[in-house]
Amino acid sequence: MNTLIAEKIYINGIILTQDDERSQVSQMATRGKTILAVGDDLSQYIDAATETIDLEGSVVVPGFIDAHVHFLWGGETLLAIPAHDACSKSEFIDIIRKFAEGRLAGSWLKGGGWNEHHFTDHSFPHKHWLDEAAPGHPMVLTRHDGHSGIASSAALAIADINAETPDPDGGVIDRDEHGEPTGILRDAAIGLVMKYMPEESESERMRNLETSQNYLLERGVTSVGDMIFDMNHFRFLQDMARQGKLKVRVTAYTPILRWAEMKTLLQEGIYEDEYFQYKGLKGFSDGSLGSHTALMLEPYEDSPDSAGIYDGDWKDINLIRESISEADKMGYQSVIHAIGDRAVREVLDVFEEVIQENGHRDRRFRIEHAQHIHPQDQTRFEPLDIIASVQPAHCVDDSLYADKLLGDRCEYAYPFRSLHQAGVRIAFGSDWPVSPADPVATIHGAIHRAGWHIKEAIGLNDSLAAHTRLAAYAGFREHDLGILQAGYLADFVVLDPDFQHLDAMDEIPAGLIQAVYMDGCKV
């Protein structure tokens, strides 16, 4: 068998390789699960057995890499209460009522995705809405950003949350004028209820996995950075990889406060292959802008008594610094959630201290979200070689209300162009299920920003690189993913030629994805 002969050759395409030396070609040859060659005349790789696929002018790009998702949680939300569809109080209640029909009385319900800024009646969720929709059911519906949620009276009672319950570290219990909980729980306060929710079964995990994988592949996402919050999910995904049941490649990150447990697993030996790899620790420094828990240098414009809160992870900064340093010495990344400008500054400080302590190495520290970066801190990323792992869909969402919350500080919100011009590596993701894992929409958002502070927009080519080559780099996969060139895995997406004109489209186009390939096979 001649290994230099292609099994498949793709011709007449606009193949955007993401290889700086040969950025666009018309042909690509594959053999097995890898790319054999790219170019404009690959006739030397063809014989009578080679299958020829005519792309007929379609665009081909590397499989999209979403640098930041919550893999199994994403599938779970697709099967839970679809609160994201609600645009008013009545719709919110109706959605829950329909979901609860036929459910066992008193059983737990869950869901999420709601965003009060989409409510046309300017209402705000209250526990009474849930009680009216599904009486007696304990439930928690998370806000679309995952940093606050609304709990029913039954759920609050199970968790023994009442007027006397103190706010937990890193969280807030919203209360009415009488001091009674309204049902809104912010950041760490959500955990007061979630810990009582029954753990998902193995069959439910399998269902969530299948749902997640199908959803991602339909949208051209072939690889993800999974920000795991449940160590059971880490073990489950290892098993799925071992059994060959992963259809999407997973680069896994585990909770920074579980580092001691993770070290034990590493000492015992973990399973890794081309579909599952472990890269490091994920931590939180603050919350989210929409929940008023992003940690800011100055108070919120609409809440002058609040400048956000520290996440519970950041309570013991010495422990966090030690964990990051120890993991770094063992060759593992640390990626830290930071949204507010104070949070970004403090994470940069910690990273800089660890770098000075441990010396130079290819560590690829990342700040996840990096939404509001004070101009004085924007120039600190590149010298420290820190990656900005960002989600343009959040920029589009925040454009609805950020000016009210931050005023003039929005001038340095989501500074994609400033970071790019400063030489910072930018990796794109969605934070799915916080935002849809839709690379076409993500790239459109980076280009257009819903018309909001458009001076910080970046173009199609740079956006595509951030969702392929640079996202691969952010997860130490640049040697086999994110570029279409010889020796790389044959993960790629075929798109309608209109993809090249996203910068001229005010609205996000539908139906651009024509085909998705993993390991050279159409999926």
Can you walk me through this structure?
It is a single chain. The chain is of the alpha/beta class and 523 residues long. Among the domains are: 1-63 and 482-523, Urease, subunit C, domain 1 (Roll), CATH 2.30.40; 80-194, Diaminopimelate Epimerase, Chain A, domain 1 (Roll). Helices cover 30% and strands 22% of the residues. The strands form 4 sheets. Strands 8-15-16-17-18-19-20-21 form an 8-stranded parallel sheet. It has a 6-stranded mixed sheet with strand order 3-2-7-22-23-24, with no helix packed on it. A 6-stranded mixed sheet has the order 9-10-11-12-14-13, with helices on both faces. Helix 9 (317-329) links the parallel strand 17 and strand 18. The longest helix is centred in the C-terminal third of the chain and has 18 residues, at 341-358. The two termini are 26 Å apart.
Topology:
Blueprint: E1 8-11, E2 14-16, E3 24-25, E4 27-31, E5 34-39, E6 51-54, E7 59-62, E8 64-69, H1 71-78, E9 81-82, H2 89-100, E10 109-114, H3 127-133, E11 139-143, E12 148-151, H4 153-158, E13 171-175, E14 181-187, H5 188-194, H6 202-218, E15 221-227, H7 231-242, E16 249-255, H8 259-268, E17 276-284, H9 317-329, E18 333-338, H10 341-358, E19 366-369, H11 375-378, H12 381-384, E20 387-390, H13 392-398, H14 402-406, H15 416-421, E21 426-428, H16 439-448, H17 460-466, H18 469-474, E22 492-495, E23 513-518, E24 521-522
Parallel strand pairs: 1-6, 2-7, 8-15, 9-10, 10-11, 15-16, 16-17, 17-18, 18-19, 19-20, 20-21
Antiparallel strand pairs: 1-4, 2-3, 4-5, 7-22, 11-12, 12-14, 13-14, 22-23, 23-24
Helix pairs in contact: 1-6, 2-3, 9-10, 13-16
